[in-house]
Design brief:
Two copies of one chain form a homodimer.
Chain A: E1 2-6, E2 10-17, E3 25-26, E4 30-36, H1 38-48, E5 53-60, H2 61-74, E6 78-83, E7 88-95, E8 101-105, H3 113-127, E9 132-136, H4 147-157, E10 162-165, H5 168-176, E11 181-182, H6 186-193, H7 203-218, E12 223-226, E13 232-236, E14 239-244, H8 256-270, H9 274-290, H10 299-308, E15 310-313
Parallel strand pairs in A: 1-5, 1-9, 2-7, 5-6, 9-10, 10-11
Antiparallel strand pairs in A: 2-4, 7-8, 12-13, 13-14, 14-15
Helix pairs in contact in A: 1-8, 4-5, 8-9, 9-10
Chain lengths: 317, 317
Amino acid sequence: VITSVCLNPALDVTHHVPRVDWTEVNRPGSVHTRPGGKGLNVARTLHALGVDVLAMGLSGGVTGAGVEAALAGLGLPAVFTRVSGETRRTFTVVDGASGAAAGFHEPGPRLSSEEFAEFCVKYEKALDGSAAVALSGSLPPGLPASAYATLIEMASAAGVPAVLDAHGEALLRGAAAGPAVVKPNLAELESLTGQPLPVGRGDGLSAVADAARRLLRAGAHAVVASLGADGLLAVTPEGCWRAEPPAAVTGNPTGAGDAVTAGLVQGLAHGWPWEERLRHAVALGTSAVAAPVAGEFSQDEYQRVLAAATVSRDGGR
Amino acid sequence: VITSVCLNPALDVTHHVPRVDWTEVNRPGSVHTRPGGKGLNVARTLHALGVDVLAMGLSGGVTGAGVEAALAGLGLPAVFTRVSGETRRTFTVVDGASGAAAGFHEPGPRLSSEEFAEFCVKYEKALDGSAAVALSGSLPPGLPASAYATLIEMASAAGVPAVLDAHGEALLRGAAAGPAVVKPNLAELESLTGQPLPVGRGDGLSAVADAARRLLRAGAHAVVASLGADGLLAVTPEGCWRAEPPAAVTGNPTGAGDAVTAGLVQGLAHGWPWEERLRHAVALGTSAVAAPVAGEFSQDEYQRVLAAATVSRDGGR
């Protein structure tokens, strides 16, 4: 089993409106509701790949009940700790005329330390029998920035390798706890260094690699930076790899990073060599962009990119 | 007890965003969730007035459970029939910079005739002991346009007078069933006549009165047209009354019509004379505009408008 942790899940609601009037009442032509939050997107991608996955998280109120019901409807095994606050919603409006999407993301419920402790008891139980664990997404209000570090230390103690996708202080503290892989995106690396990191050619990539090395020095065993349409850059003690999709894909980039995380944790669980892991992860990320909904990917596009992606060693030097 | 029926309730979610970016992810500064739909707004206004009220409706899925939980939290007595579909949501995004509000209203769940029959059994039971009934809002998909007519006939058989706030075919069919009062707004009268009805002075009002008389001829015992900031026009077999607020109030007109309906059904239940009913209703409608949230009203503003509103007989001639 691969365990995917989502401390701040969401009910994702998407309205498709033929032509939005931003000052009036609109009647959406279609409404989609699905369990969301990065950790649940990772779990859904793994589930779609046929991987034995367990989603774990915190759930509160009727919105939390909705998230749990939606996961059950997908047949995705999940263990949730009930909390007193209300699980957040994200609301996305897609304008059919312009193609633009506006997102409105509610904050999560404030958690107590007792609620997090209750989660940890269930998490420790789940680690027994997990091949790897993915820890993804923002921390809900009330949790200390060390929350992911705590979960990584518990995983290490149980001999379970972890992939971390977080940002800011939670990422830094988490990296210090020695996860097998951290997966920042460009924005996360930029906020770490305080410098813009234009990818482009040459210098750009080496600046990204330098930023990634800060996370290695902090304690992460490997860093895989996701560069959007520019693919992945892996920086490990054994060297650097660059994975590039054959061509930029247009679509919805939301959730593409989560598909990359899913690919990385699957490769970690199976002990695949880096080249294979990265080819799988970049194909998942690219095929997620081609799918209309976060947490889903196009199987055809996955196969196409898997065959056509280039993975080159030392690309970041 | 006054019974307020809401066949198509909603969970109303409002996001306040300091400055909306319509092409990006926004983080709402505050999130408000409340039970909505016109019939529940009427019930909440009556409840706030200290009136003994029973809300009745249809509720489905986790969103319906959320609506029921929110009413219970307000201490508002409610009897819901559970249905297999999912209760709808409305999302409103208020842009702090421009003050503009965008609304996104989901369609309601599709109802089966068995579900409506189950509701009718509970409704018939509730009529026994009701002083009056308010029937407000859109019909959910799957219900025939005669649904309100059916409920008005059941109320008549039980000796309970009804106020109807509906539109289109449901309004026409409902009026034919002989409710004590129908409360169309200008847009509803316009869609009935197929003609624009500018209020203004003189001719404008008499055109509104003519449109209202069509509903009298259809079978309604009285018609109270709500004219927005221009107040109310009542057309009854005993004559016409015009109720005007002292001055236009700026604020949120959503739910003002529901506050008027609440005032009208309360006056009907108590048998108040038309002048008193209309003064109460126009003060509630105006004070609802001054309140930031649909289904609520400002007590101070209510008292102020009640004292200052003018109600004149034969104003519509």
